[in-house]
């Protein structure tokens, strides 16, 4: 399982990468592995939409399950990764780079502090088996 350092993670398996004014959200390698072959992705929020931490932002479906993508932080959607709508399997192959989901503007930067670092998230995932 890949858990890149420098990202923050929440217990519902989304990651957040914040660099300067740019913040990106996606799903973790652990999440895509648990879902197996992802076949469908539906964005429930669009650019310009504001959302709160724990809101449902998108839904993914795999051959064995469906899962909600939950907002790990509050913010406003700047951009969605439209390129993966037609190729949702990108989430299985590259969840941290090409498989990003949202580029957002953080509205409550202090919420980042409540998320886990890579080491904490790896330990959290190990305890779930």
Keywords summarizing the entry:
129 residues; alpha+beta; 6-stranded antiparallel sheet; 3-stranded antiparallel sheet; 35% strand; globular
What does this structure look like?
- With 129 residues, this protein is α+β, with helices and mostly antiparallel strands.
- It has a single domain (8-109), classed as RNA polymerase II/Efflux pump adaptor protein, barrel-sandwich hybrid domain (OB fold (Dihydrolipoamide Acetyltransferase, E2P), Beta Barrel), CATH 2.40.50.100.
- The protein is 16% helix and 35% strand.
- The protein contains three helices and nine strands, in the order E-E-E-H-E-E-E-E-E-H-E-H.
- The chain starts with 7 loop residues before the first strand and ends with a helix.
- The model has no long low-confidence stretch (mean pLDDT 96).
Structural class: alpha+beta
- Overall number of structural domains: 1
Evaluate the radius of gyration: 13 Å
> Which CATH-level-2 architecture?
Beta Barrel
Order of helices and strands, N to C?
EEEHEEEEEHEH
CATH class value: Mainly Beta
- Choose one word for the global shape: globular
The CATH superfamily turns out to be RNA polymerase II/Efflux pump adaptor protein, barrel-sandwich hybrid domain
Strand and helix layout:
Layout lengths: L7 E2 L4 E6 L2 E6 L1 H7 L2 E6 L6 E2 L4 E7 L3 E5 L4 E6 L9 H4 L8 E5 L11 H9 L3
Antiparallel strand pairs: 1-2, 2-3, 3-9, 4-6, 5-8, 6-7, 8-9
Brief summary of the model shown:
By secondary structure, the chain is an alpha+beta fold.
């Amino acid at each position: 399982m890949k858990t890149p350092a420098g990202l923050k993670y929440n217990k519902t398996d989304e990651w957040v990468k914040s660099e300067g004014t740019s913040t990106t959200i996606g799903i973790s390698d652990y999440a895509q592995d648990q879902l197996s072959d992802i076949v469908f992705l539906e964005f429930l929020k669009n650019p310009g939409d504001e959302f709160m931490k724990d809101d449902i932002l998108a839904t993914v479906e795999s051959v064995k399950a469906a899962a909600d993508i939950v907002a790990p932080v509050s913010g406003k959607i700047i951009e969605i990764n439209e390129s993966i709508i037609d190729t949702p399997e990108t989430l299985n192959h590259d969840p941290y780079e090409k498989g990003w989901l949202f580029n957002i503007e953080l509205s409550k930067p202090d919420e980042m502090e409540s998320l886990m670092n890579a080491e904490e998230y790896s330990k959290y995932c190990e305890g779930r088996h």
